[in-house]
Amino acid sequence: MKKVAFTLVLTISMFSCNSIQNIGSSSNLKQAATLLGSLSSNSTVQQISTLFTLLDTNKDEAISTTEAIGSVAENFNVLDTDNSTSLDLTELTGLLALLK
Ligand SMILES: [Ca+2]
Ligand SMILES: [Ca+2]
Predict the structure, then answer these.
(1) CA–centroid distance for 18 within its chain
(2) What pTM does this model have?
(3) What are the residues facing 86 on neighbouring strands?
(4) 25-99: what CATH class?
(5) Where are the domains of the chain?
(6) β-bridge mates for residue 87, sequence order
């Protein structure tokens, strides 16, 4: 009986942990979308760097096709100059040239 209760507590705490993570990543995505919408040819590499961090949800220092949104997703193949199906910070910076 004790073991069942423990399993239940563990399941609940894992579930609430997941919920917090989901909220965190959806707010990151919202921030990324807002930032992406505000980008222009006058935007700085610093802003691209912030965008990169927000989009890179699994923190592997690369934007995969599933992590890309909006104009990053639309121009993914153009930005991915080495055809690695992921974007590094240098490749994402290429977005600035596309905005001009
Ligand atoms: Ca990533
Ligand atoms: Ca690449």
Answers:
(1) 17
(2) 0.75
(3) 64
(4) mainly alpha
(5) 25-99
(6) 63
How would residue 86 be classed by pLDDT, with cut points 50, 70 and 90?
very high
DSSP for 15-77? HHHHHHHHHHHHHHHHHHHHHHHH--TT--HHHHHHHHHHH-TT-SSSEETTT--HHHHHTHH
CA 86, 92, 94, 98 torsion-angle sign: positive
Rounded distance from Cα 63 to ligand 2 centre (Å): 9
- Beta-bridged to residue 63, according to DSSP, are 87
Counting ligands in written order, the one closest to the CA of 89 is: 2
Nearest to 35 by CA among 55, 56, 60: 55
Q: What average pLDDT does range 23-44 have in this prediction?
A: 90
Ligand showing the shortest atom-to-Cα distance for residue 68: 1
Using the mean position of ligand 1's atoms as its centre, give its distance from the Cα of residue 100 in Å: 26
